[in-house]
Amino acid sequence: MYTAIIAEDEMHSRELLKNMVAIYCKDITVVATAGSVEEGVLAIKEHKPDLVFLDIEMQTGTGFDLLQQFNNPAFDVIFTTAYDHYAVKAIKFSAVDYLLKPIDAEELKEATDKFILKRKSNLGSQALQSLLQNLRKPAQVPQSITLSTSDGLEFIALPDIVHIEANGPYSIFNLKHDKKIMVSKNLKEYEGLLCDFHFMRIHNSHIINLNEVKKMLKTDGGYAVMSNGAQLIISPKKKDEFLKQMAATNLSS
Q: Which of the listed residues 49, 62, 76, 210 has the most CB atoms within 10 Å of its CB?
């Protein structure tokens, strides 16, 4: 049995989530609820829970303000938010789970099942540490992304990614030094996540690191030649955008 705390400033949302956990998550017991960042910190220190359901935006601060009070959190986190908060991107980078309100029972069960698996292998706290490290880094320091694989978590610096290719419902990360990592998410998931970091989807099957493009071949409509030697076709619809992005990348480098 695992213990949990709910930190959420809306009473109705707190009680609803507490009831849903009781009905759908039989291995988890909610031992306390908190209506503010300060109450959440005190509740965690008192009860030492395994899991915290943490609202991103509360009236007295953010869920990240709460997390910053703990240097090495011994608990795992499932974030909750009423909208697609700007911080969701940081959360996705770190492979930490989140739930959009109104919370769906099936998604809640899926998130808590993943928490239990992570807890058994101590991966949840590693993902949370990755999130905290990314939040603490200055803007100019390259971000890292946490990839959840069948073997565990991989922490990858963005500059080490050469390109990502689609493989059915999976994505294969092609890294420097000929390393490959397969993850069970499709390219669409990473397209929106990486577009602000000099990555571009040039084809239905490929996302590339623009900093790792060595040249463009004009044959058959166009290919991007990557630093690892891969020649990746550029969709005709993406050609103009690719040239524009490459010009901007070269100017900033």
A: 76
